[in-house]
Design a protein that fits this description.
48% helix, elongated, 5 domains
Length: 1141
Amino acid sequence: MIEKNKILESWIMVEHLSEGDIGLNDKAILTLNDLQEQDFYSLFLHKIEKKKWNRRQKGGVVVYFDIFKFQEVVDILHAEYGLESTDEDIRFGDKFSFALYFDKNLNFLEDMTFFTESAYIRKFKKVPYEKEFREFEKDFKNQLAQDFDETAGDSAKFNAAMQKELLQHEVDIINCRMKILGNIETEATNLHSFFIDDLEKAKKIETVNLNAYLYGNKKERMNLDSKKDSVNFHPHLFEQILQPKNYPLGRFPSNTTYALSLMQQVAVNLSIGFDNNQMRSVNGPPGTGKTTLLKDIFAQLVVQQAYSIAKLSDHFIKGTEKTIYFNHASIGEIPEHIIENNIVVASSNNGAVQNIVNELPLSKEIDNFLIDELKEADYFCEISNAKVSVEWLEDENGKKREELVKESVPGEEKFWGVFSLEGGKANNMSNILTNMKHIHKYLEEDYLPNQGIYKQFLSHYEEVKAIRTKRQEFADSVRMYQEYTQKMEQVRGSYQEKLEKKEHELCVELKKLAENKQECGQQLEQLHLSLKEVQNRAEAVRKNMDSMNQCLQVHKEQRPCFFAGKKKKEEYRSRLNEITDQLVKLNDEDIECREQEKKINENIHLRQTRLSKNNEKQEKLKQEFNSWKTVETGKISNLEKRVREYENIKNDSKTEPLNMNQEYEDLQISNPWFDEAYRVAQSKLFVMALRVRKQFLYENRKNVKAAIIVWDQQEKYLDRKHVIEAAWNWINMTIPVISSTFASFSRMCKNLGAETLGHLFIDEAGQALPQAAVGAIYRSRHVMVVGDPLQIKPVLTLDSNTLYMLGEHFGVTEKYLSASASAQILADAASQYGFYRKQDKAEDSWVGIPLWVHRRCRYPMFTISNMISYDGFMVQGMEKYGKADWFDVGGMANNKYVEEQGEFLLHKLKEMIDKNPKILDKKEKDVVYVITPFSNVAYQLSQKLRKIHFTRYDEQGKPTNVGTVHTFQGKEAPIVFFVLGADRQSSGAARWAVTEANIMNVAATRAKEEFYIISDRKLYLGLGCDVATDTDRIIREYKNQYLVDDHAHKNELRMQVDETRTLIIDADFRRITGTVKYVGKGTESFYAYVVGADGKEYSITESIYSKTESAIEVIQKGKKISFIPGEGNKKLFATEVKIDV
């Protein structure tokens, strides 16, 4: 892990090298040509006295010594470190070596003097370490302090000191400048880095957010891949995040017809509680609604604050001894759980900062049905639409008093309230305090208190929460339906599988038992035959025995008498023995028969027992099988019953559930669970939250007044910074959204410590240098970073090779110091939830929470951006078709500018202006932008187009409709010309412009309707860069596929496309086709939303639905219909609806 201090010191070095810029064309920067006889003292006093400052004004003079071209330093670094030059379009300006500051009495201000690090490198030909440079600067300042000691009021000493510096440092007076400063404390900061103080403080500060920013997320990453054919698709993750209970209760009251897209809602749900991380990032390609989702997050934070306020037992926040700011007066400290939801917006892009705070309070951005209610809530509406100021008046006794001035601005009320203001620099903070003074006056004199608003809010809060709870119950039913359906299918599948197996096993067993039964039967039959034989034999033996016994009896009766002869007696004995032997033999045979009969009977019994058991087993197996079958079918039946129950709940509701199995495009556009009725309820809760806030401010108007006093005199409370923090929290409570550029952030928050701010939102973070965000991040408890690293990168003050060398010097990687390093890159790495742009999950492909639905550009500009930068992940939110072409105009380039391309553009613009004079009307919005990658090309084109009054300028005299790509981030116009410039001699610069997709991506997505490239086409296509070849291919394919009639294009493009994209125009030229997107249940009838073939969304109101013939058949989700578009109250309606045939 790279040491924290090494990272910070490398950034400090880069910031030091950015110091010391001086604009020699600035009229306020004066030469010393009026110097006479080396009398610096008289010259400076003369210039100061001409300003006629009052006594309290802290004016003075700064003198810049030894001005040089910064290119000298770049050349030194390249030579000393063996670096090659690059083709990057970086404009190196002028620097001064050191600056001396004097107050209006010419007292030397040692603390404000500084020696530029650029001058150090120029002098010593090496890059110093921070400690080394600080020691040099300290010695330098000490020497200056000695030289200018006691010179104020002594012209001779002063002039001698000035001459000494010129001689000692070998400075020619020609290379010196001076500037008279009206406020030396505020105006002197412009030449210093805005970030070094915060970077130095960060070395000693440890916060969760700062560590996450520097070292990334340490938890398991949650990949929000929403393509169902991806190996990284995890629908369960989306199902968890998008549960209704995770949706906000508040919503910004913009058009309630439109819901957020899927990934916008994911980002909102994560930011308001589901993701308990303190830092996250959102990665939003152009036109994907980053500002829209921020509005809804702001609204939820305001609602949550209102809830916390309403629940307070005492709504007046009392001060304590610790927070005394004047005599016995103390300022109350708002409870932590309330200020935690304060909102601050920051960006490197001043336009982005202004866009957010200027757009939030615009009345035209509010739903027509809610604007009256919002104005009735009156979050200081009159003040927001007035020009407010403060004047100091002197009474007849010479005593000055503050007078608040409020001038009405003629015309329609533009703003609905003082919801957001730009802070940061001193003038903006002064404006915030002025607004607060007017608000305080209103609360004291005009506001009618509404103590009951707290209960009213809590009641409505619970009502909205109840809607959400009901939707959660429905979602739970859908989930149960899905779970039971899945379980039922699993049980059915398992049952069928087991049934087949058990049936087979049963058949096998029954077959075996049948075979056993048959075998037993055969054996019994045989045994019975044997038994019969034995029994017959035994019977014969017994008959013989009976016969022999009778013979024996008869023979015994014939026994000879005593006197019988010997022979007769012998014959008798012989016969007796014979009979006896026969009987013995028959008896033995009888015994044998009995034994055989017994044995056979035993065998018969055994076989009969076996057969009985066989039959019993057979019946048991059948019974067990039938019992199992009954149980399993019972389970299935119960599951089917539960599925039907939940299915009925699902079907009876008109709520659209989350369906992660939809086609990718449909999924991205979807927003499940809630309908317009809920969005209206959310919006109304936000409006009521503003009423709560206003009442709270009324009850704490003393604290509001205290905050104004403390903030305006912060220097008095530097030893009690918690008092300043308390004041800030009341300021942020009064002005719910305060924005600032990073350049002014550290000054605005210089007395605010670590984790004193609530929620920080960084916009256009892809344009922000990583070091720019450090101070804002360590001061904040919650951080959301929004941007896109695939659009404009940070503006470089050093070429990429020099940055790489500095990285090597300090031992840090390109993640922290390179041409691509940005606040967005570091915040993406810190975000646990995000997306891998590559399937292999390469570390450099991880981005924050992705937004995919684009709603700005027509085809093919959308296609160009989507293909060259986003791998086709973006989804077109509006089916509209524009024009594009690549004009092949070559010529010789002078510093990348090609005169032929300028002339061609001039000719094209003249043609357009003839057809549409509004292009030159300064009162109208920009119709055409002219964009280029190169500074000199932008300058030359602005001058050329100025001749036809095309070029527009801001208050600082900078062109606003002609410029480099970097100046157009966040802007859009109907038509864009992208002039690439360059020729074969400057092919390296051409390659730089199209090697990465960022520049082409931003240029194409500034064009809402038409996009034209002007360049040497062969040069750019010959570079072998995918960006150029893919863009050319897309434009050619688009022109071939979509045959555009230029005349008809004014009204509608007629295209040869498939049926779903064809606009069918009836004879009355009004009827169009569309697809029913959603059907919902209203209070009396149904209502629906239709996406027309023109890409717009139309409403079918309950009234229209009830008047439509066979509406229930015609108006079904997914059905094609035809209708006549209508408009009312700035909403689009589908009337005279018919089925499309």
